[in-house]
Amino acid sequence: MRTLFIADLHLSEQEPAITAGFLRFLQREAYQADALYILGDFFEYWIGDDDPQPLHREISSALHDLTNSGVPCYFIHGNRDFLIGKRFAQECGMTLLPQEKRLSLYGHPILIMHGDTLCTDDVDYQRYRRKVNNPFIQKLFSWLPLRTRLNIAAKMRDRSQMTNGGKSEAIMDVNQQAVIEALERNQAEWLIHGHTHRPAIHNVDMPNGKLAKRAVLGAWHYQGSMISVTPEGIELIEFPF
Ligand code: LP5
Ligand code: MN
Predict the structure, then answer these.
(1) pLDDT tens, residue by residue, 211-237
(2) Domains along the chain?
(3) DSSP class per residue in 167-202
């Protein structure tokens, strides 16, 4: 009895070791789990379900095998792959979830999300996010030729890396008040998210005197990172590829 959570793999053709690590993780861990939740930034970037990259077919086929074997898989969009759509989800046999989802697992009320919406101090990012989440802008983008979309994505990644260099660590972390409000809004005791690449399990003092937990997934740079929820509790696990 255990449910697994992962995020921030940033899969790309340029990082075959991470892809291999993910495929091994499926065989070693996911097939024995009750369910797998992918909490965004699964891919380095995503420009549309019509992108013919072989990596995408390799991943969808592996996830399809998993879901076909009876392990359900759920996906929440990240800030890199918010354009993953129904077509790719169907190819994987996975279910797309809204940006915030409350679960009840083995009696534990849990809130899951990518985590970028909690970074409310990063005002520039939140402004940018509202623009790229506009359905009309997304529709316009989807009509552009593949090449143009790839070029725009590469420019956005460059721009992002440039501006991130100038932002403080505090600005790019979650805002504590946003964490408390999200937990209260969803009446959850535990929050699981990724995005910040700062793996840890934090205690959160709630205004009602209760103690909540915020579990943060690590990014898959040189090792894997997962969170396991069982009837007994919650655990953050780092493992070699
Ligand atoms: O991703 P990461 O870790 O580098 O930094 C994030 C935030 N950056 C982003 C940008 C993504 O990396 C870009 C991914 C490309 C997606 C595929 C293309 C889809 C296009 C769809 C168009 C409809 O999310 C970064 C945060 C950081 O996390 C920490 O939280 O700070 O935020 C930014 O860098 C935003 C900047 O502050 C300002 C915006 C720069 C980009 C401007 C592009 C112009 C928009 C064009 C719209 C068509
Ligand atoms: Mn992210």
Answers:
(1) 999 999 999 999 999 999 999 999 999
(2) 3-121+170-240 (3.60.21.10)
(3) S-TTTTS--HHHHHHHHHHTT-SEEEE-SS---EEE
